[in-house]
Fold these 4 entries.
Entry 1:
Amino acid sequence: MKDISTGINYFNNADFYLAHDFFEGMWADCNREDRKFFQGLIQVSVGCYHLTCNNYSGALNQLNKGILKLNDYLPSYYNLDLADLKNKINCLIKELESYFSNPSNEIDVGKIPTIKFN
């Protein structure tokens, strides 16, 4: 199996499309216990990609789905600090939800978190 740090580097460098592709490749090769984990990383990556394209509805949908899957692997999995990622993505989700209540501003994509290793 590939080294997950490559996908994390793509994500942390805001290349969410490549991160998505990389995690999808890992998902295709992983064991059954890891499938939901990689699906979660794929969905979070896609959500962040949508966010950078100002597709706030798609971002909210994918971020919610991704975090829900990653909840099963908290607080850490593959040496990733998933608890930190979840907290920061949840802040983005709240900002997106409030945007739909009052769409006066664009969402600051600078608030997209990085994924940290433990």
Entry 2:
Amino acid sequence: MEQQSTLDERFGKCPYATAQSLISGKWAVLILLYLEDGPTRFNELLRKMPKMTHATLSVQLKALEEHGLVKRVQYESIPPKVEYSLTEIGEKFRPVIAAMETWGNEYIAQMKGSDNA
């Protein structure tokens, strides 16, 4: 718990603590990745992450929305239609996701190489 309070104290002051806090949810990075393609409906996101529950996705989207990374648009239609997309600051996370992909692939390759050693 001490680590969380330290993180809270540094939020908005330290860029690393701030970024870590914003994307700390287990699924946050994947949600941001899937929203890169444009506005996406809730169930479409849920289908892309079959091990995630409806409630967990709802909580994660609300947190990302509260942090200003994701926007929710509800259309007045029957049946109701809701779409999620990246905000302007959420769009700026794209290079971070690309860098994570590059690093992740390098790490996977290294781990596979060490299995053969």
Entry 3:
Amino acid sequence: MRHHRALLIFSVLTWVLSKGLNVHFGRTVGGGTGFYLTIIFRDILPILGGGALIVSVLKVLIFEKTDRPLQTLMQNYRRLFFDMSRVTNIIVVMAAMILGISGFSELKPLIHFIKPYSWDVTFMEIDRVLHFGRDPWTLLTPIFGSASATRTINFVYNFWFYVIFIFWIMAAWSKPNMPNLIASNDAAPSKLTNWSRQFTLAFIMTWVIGGFLLAILFSSMGPAFYGLIDPSNNPFAAQMASLHAMDAESSLWAIKTQGLLQDSYLNPASGGPEGISAMPSVHNATAALYVFAGYKIKRYIGHIMVAFMIAILIGSVHLGWHYAIDGYVGIALAWACWWGAGRILKRV
């Protein structure tokens, strides 16, 4: 806990803030958490756990070529699951991350209560200035406008959720540099411990600062919901009509999720996922954190995450979730939080 005290403090403060504001606005405390925790424990973690087991078995069978593969597999897992420094690290890190995200999930739906959406027109106009007088989605449609390309982008965009937990688990599974726990603050942690602490703290900072505080300051809904703001003058009507046509042929995840969010916004008692926010893009900011952490771990992981970040940026615009400027600001925010987390950890 001392090793991760900065992360714990930030997560606890986020959780306390979420409870206080929900009580202030007369909302049900805990109402925004259950939906996301269900997805984490029912869908994402079982799939990742099963995938990790399959990879472990294949590794033993193909690369280790042992005469007793089951015994070797059990020995490998025993070294991991019975290493108490890893086990306690996992408990603390995962508890802190889930606590912080639980708080965030209850803060995000409050954005339009605190400040009504008012920046969409401005961000739409900024996009046009930055992209030669055109809406960015019109530049992407000739390349990614087919149904197959759109579905591929949508798959990558949603796979972002799984990558979150891959990095969470990698960070939590990193064996702490135990001598550093009792050394002075000047003692340099190991490379692995350094990236894991910096990533988890920067992650929570990015989501709370970007996804709540800045989201209030620049309260906006995004292209998919522009019709709620100005239905008679919607520059994204053709884009969304095309996406809805694809969804009518075969379910498109983005359209289904956008529909759930819109229903919850118009009818808060519906019980679906809540919280519409465009600026800055937490999706893009988180993808940028993958890049920074990836290069700290292995160069090739960083290269892969760069490609993934570009795909997320394209998807955020093509699928109507964000203005392009949302993604650019989100990436810059991620760098600032990554740098800030590093500075904080040098002091604590």
Entry 4:
Amino acid sequence: MMIQRTFLFLLLVSIAGWGQQRVRAREAGVTLGAMKPGPLNSITDVAGVRVGHVTLRQGPNICTGVTAIVPHGGNLFQEKVPGAVFVGNGFGKFVGTTQIEELGEIETPILLTSTLNVWRVADALTDWMLGLPGNEEVRSINPVVGETNDGALNDIRSRPVGRDHVFAALREAAGGPVTEGAVGAGTGTVAFGWKGGIGTSSRITREGWTVGALVQTNYGGDLMIGGVAVGRRLRNEPPPSPDGSVIVVLATDAPVDARNLKRMAARAMLGLGRTGAAGSNGSGDYALAFSTARSAQPPVGNNSMSGLFLAVIEATEEAVVNSLFMAEPMEGNGRRIEALPVDRVVQMLREAR
């Protein structure tokens, strides 16, 4: 009788939310991949990279925001970084990608937001860049802005993200730990039927190079974590719609040229595949990679790229899992999206060992 009462108590407490504290994967005892993460296990482990968020929660229907990834602290137009974009499936809007493809350079911070806010955010980012000291005579700016569609939880047609929000995200961009989950561009996103959001992770190669990933998860498929089909076990039914989108932003301090940065970006899709991504017709799957190396050292040769490729795969996978583990349940736009039940997932992974 005592055992039954104790079980009932624990069940009721669990239903009430006990044990549901949002923690990152490694804090929950979930280790993904074989490579060592950086000190913060974050894209900001790449020296100089900064991240800022502005989160909009207004009334019952506005759940959106903007996230800024800044490659270095200088004037990016004057000190461009090598960059590349890989398109897994192009059902999306990613402003600035054609010039990156042509020139292999990135000249503004990378901003992430909601689909219908892309052009407003790009306009504000252009204002920001034109206003920087040293850019007084600049007559062309290539703003880089990606998106996923947060219309399930957000009144997407209202397009509330404006100039002040973009400027605030850029001003507040900082190194150090990155806030994850339902923040910034991940405020209203949904992944695998659970609350998605912003996630990040990093890896250190044998050569001592750092690779960091930041993701905006809003995509579908059959959720896998550490090779375990947790999604179907949790739901006991077919996975929800495979449609949706995901943006992966990759940073490295390795001296990688634009051609090999594109090869790195392509490996992000393998990381997404480890999470059970469907890559459906209605999915916008993009990866953007840049290097912060600014010395005259020669670029990494083809034969030395494999460690960087694996770092991308592992960091992308863990960043996705962190976005799910850290996101809290959310109500908006007349819907409620539950958070991934971390305690149940961890138990499944333990049992699968």
